[in-house]
Amino acid sequence: MAGPLIKKGLNYVSSKDFRDYLCRYHFWGPVANWGLPLAALGDLKKDPEIISGKMTLGNCLLQILIVKYS
């Protein structure tokens, strides 16, 4: 019973519609939104004296985008 369902899922993943979806901001926007909190959680394990330049840059760029498109 799971065979046809798996085959249908694999056909969709290999379809042009799915590739088109991966190339749009509807997919990458949420991926980027989840990336920042995950990076912040990774920084919790570091010494408090170290400020992540990548994290600071990412937060600044995110805020610029939010202000520009709000």
TrEMBL record:
GO terms for cellular component: mitochondrial inner membrane. It comes from the Eukaryota. The keyword Transmembrane applies. Pfam families: MPC. Keywords: Membrane, Mitochondrion, Mitochondrion inner membrane, Transmembrane, Transmembrane helix, Transport. InterPro entries: MPC. Mediates the uptake of pyruvate into mitochondria. Belongs to the mitochondrial pyruvate carrier (MPC) (TC 2.A.105) family. This is Mitochondrial pyruvate carrier. It comes from Lottia gigantea (Giant owl limpet).
